[in-house]
Structures are given as C-alpha cells and as structure tokens.
Amino acid sequence: MGHGIRRLLIAAACLVAFALGGGQLQAQDTAVPDLAPVVVDGKELFVLRGLTALPARLRASRVAERIEEFAASSDDPVVEMSIDPHPLGREISIDGTPMLLLIEDDAAFDQVSLDVLALVNGERVKQAIEEYRAERTPEARREGFINVGLWSVGFVFVISVLLVLQRKVPKFLRRKTEARLDRIEAATAEIVRGKAIAELIGFLIRLVFWALILVTIYYFISIVLFSFAETRPFAMILITYISDPIFELLKSMLEFLPNLVTLTAIFFATRYLLKMLRTVFENIEAGTLKFEGFEAHWIWPTFHIMRAMILLFVIILSYPYVPGASSQAFQAVSILVGLMVSMGSNSVVSNALAGVFVLYRRSANVGDRIKVGEHSGDVVEIKLMETYIKSLKNELISIPNAQMLNSEVINYSSRIDGRGLLVHTTVGIGYDEPRQKIEALLLEAAARTRYIKKSPEPFVLRTSLGDFAVNYQINGYTTRGNYLPKIVSELHANILDVFHSNGVQIMSPHYEGDPAEAKIPPVPTPEEMEQAKREAEEAREAEAQAEAEAERKAKEALEAARAARAKPKPKPRKRRIGRRPKTG
Prior knowledge:
It comes from Pseudoruegeria aquimaris. By secondary structure, the protein is of the alpha+beta class. It is 59% helix and 15% strand. The protein is built from 14 helices and 13 strands. A five-stranded antiparallel sheet has the order 9-8-7-6-10. A three-stranded antiparallel sheet has the order 3-4-5. The protein has a three-stranded antiparallel sheet with strand order 11-13-12, covered by helices on one side. A hairpin with a 3-residue loop joins β12 (459-465) and β13.
C-alpha cells in the first residue's frame, strides 16, 4: 500500500515537473531581445539594444552617465546638437561633446533609417539636458518649496479629516446597527453576540482608516521628494513600489473584463436554469406534473443529481475563463490536485454510484423494514453516499451504499404479489397429540393475532418428524412488516395461551422423558380471561390511535412543506428616503 502511494506521488511530481519544464523550454525558444532603457534624471529617453561585446544594460547606463555628467558641468540653458558621420554609424554630439553612437543594427531593430533614428534620439538628448539644467535653477527650487507648502496644507487637512472619521464612523454605524444586531442576537439564541459583531466592524473600519492614513503619508513623502530635481529619483522609486503593482492589477482587471462578462452570463444562466429545474420538481411533488412510473421518493434525489451534473458542466465550461487557467503553474497544480483526488476518492465514487443504483432499483424505499447483513430496521433516509435505518432498538445506523449494493437486502415491507409478508414460527408437539387438533389450535392462535390477514388464510405445515415430536409450522400473511417483532411475539403468546388452555404440552426444543405430570400452567379463570381480553383490546385501541395520530402529523408536515415551497417569496418593501417628520 505504501509503495503504491509512493509511486503515485513520484508520478505526480514528474508530471508537474514536465509541465513546468515545458513552459521553461517554450520561454527559452521565444526569448526576448536584449534591451535596456536610457534613464536621465528619472525620465526614460529611449531604448538601446545590446551589442555582441556590450550588453544592453551596460550600454544604456554608460550613455545615461555621460549625459548627466555633461548636463551637470554647466548651467547654460541652451545647447546645440549635432550628428556626425562615424565609421560604424552616426555619432550624436552636444556642444561638440560625443554623447551616443548609433549603428545600423539599431536602425534595423527600430525599422527606420539610421539618419532618422539619430535625429530623433539626438533631439531627446538635447531636450533632457536643457530640462536637467532648467529644473536646478533658483527659480525652480523656489517653486518647489511653494508646492511643498501647498501640499503640506492639504496633507494636514486630509489627515485631520481621516482621524476625525476614524473616531466618528464606528460610533455612527454602531448606533445605526444596534437594533438590528440585537435582533440577530435574539434570533440566534445569543450564539451570535451583537456586541462582538459591533466590535469587529469597528475594528475593521479603524483598520481601513489607518491604512488610508499610511497611504496618504507615503504619497505625501513621494510628492515632497518629487518637487525637487535632486530628490526626484527617490520619489520615482517610492511611487513605483506602490503604483506599478496597482497599475499591473488594473491592467489585468481590464484584460480580464471580457472573461468576467462571460462568467457573469454563465452564472446568471445557471442560476435561472436551476430555479426552473426546482420549479419543475416542486410541481411534480405537488402533483401538477405527472410522469408515469416516476416514484415520489425519487423527486428530490433526482433533482440533486441533475443539479450536480449541471454544476459540473458549468465548472468545465467556465474553466478556460478563470484568471490564470492557461498558465503552466495552474495546469501543473490542476494535474496534482486531480491525482490526489483520484487517489483518495475511490470509496466516495463507489458509494455515490451505488447510491444511484440503490435509489432507482427499488430494493428499498423510505419507511420499509429491511435487513442488511447483521442490521435490520426501518429506512429513514436514502442519500447519495449512505442509507440511514432506525433499528428495532431505536438506534440510527448509517450503512454505506456500496454495502447496500454488494450485500443481500431483505425487505420485509415489499408486496411482490400483493399478499404481504409471510410470518411463521415452529413448535414441537408429541406424537400422542392428534394432528388435526394441533393444526386447529395453531390456526386459532393465528386468528387471534393482530395484523395477520384473514385472507389469504393462515396455514400449517408439518416440517419434520423428529425422534420425540412432530414439528408444526404456522404461517400467516401480514402487510405490516414494520411490526414484525410485535406480530411474532403476539403469535407466540397466543400459541401458549391456546395450547395451555387445551392441555397440550409443547415439547420443543428438547425432550428428555415424559414427566409425571404435563408441564402446563394453570388455566386462567373466565374472569381473568375477560380482564386480559379487555386489556388487550384497550392496548390495541391505544396503539391504533397512536398510529392514526402519527399518520395525521406526517400528512400535516408534508402539506406544510408543500405549502412553504409553493408560497411566493415576499417582495422587499421599498424604503422612502427623505426627512423624518418631526415629533413633539
């Protein structure tokens, strides 16, 4: 068992590794060209590709350092840009200082001519140098301080408002929801504590406000740093840490929007389809719709099976539209989960399939008295995975449906030919008693027993001729299989009474010799017989009344359930929004 599980786990790991490895090989086959941006003073100018002996990142960083060193070397606001021929391509210079060398491969990658590429990139370099010097003038620094002062006033105002709301909003919501929380607490018998819910809501609201305060402080620091050219790179780093994930998330959400529309349409279509399906089965239960041969106890199990099939189909249909469903990691995890489920769900699947067969092959219905293996009792509920029976000792027994399918099921309540269940018991009587007398006494005992039918009539079989006694078997039909122990017990009591009153000694199960006197209890007096008869009649009447009351309550419960399903749901009342009338 352990080696088998180990082999399955190794196979699963190999499949996952194969899936991930395939993704890596595919990524290597479609490698992105070596590119790097030229960033000056926190601004991206253009992108350079790598050369054979010079990677793109190193090439871009050298160009950016050269531009920044030249821009910081002077405060002249205007510069001149020139493009000069070079043996390898075109050289861009600013005020006679070389800044950048472009080759034919750069132009081929951008799909433009080399002269056009040199002109565009040269203008960008010139503009970057002029902006670098303009942002470091005394006037620019004064403007930065003014902006910082204005932003500081707004920052103090926003923080003050958030702090006030952080204190006021939880109290306001608590006053508004106090009555509703009290009703929830009363409805749940104080299992759900209204005070605990209110404290949780207040904590979550305060947590949200503190998060807003921290975000406000974070962006205020970024804005202050962004107001000065010297600290702008640090501001860009701070803003990028939060903005890039947010922008990526928004981009992913926008890309997911068509799939979200499709999933929403599938959701609402499935919802209304399930509502229509439930309405159909409710009408079948109410008798509005009728299908020949469709049993009443099949209604809701059939509904649940059809609903499960619809939901499974919807999951398969929706899978391609789930975010990340096409990624290699998601597919690898799906393979692993599928293997784990297949390893651990053998008994679940077998019980579920067995439940379908048990339900529809009519071997047992709810209310039947059955015997499965060593267990016997009344069927209380048949579910997809297991069947519940209530034993004769009022014990609730759960039997897996796989056992129901693979074992012999004895149904005491089924009426195959309409006559009912055959109740029987055997007694041994000595050879000195006439056969006709014994058979008449047994038939009399059967006639006195409740729930044994008069038609077909009870009959007696001579099952064996023993060494010391003849074995007689009394047989009678009954349609009350649920009362089988009581019927057999009452039949035994009537046999004893009839035989003892007629002086017949029962010799089974063992016989050692004829005693001096027959082992027969004294015959009761007529008064005692009459009293016992009255008590038996009263017990029968009480039992009949109890059965009638139980049937009446069951019918009322069934009618109430049907009425509850058929009753339309109340529409929510529209609340009028406006000022409350003044009182007093």
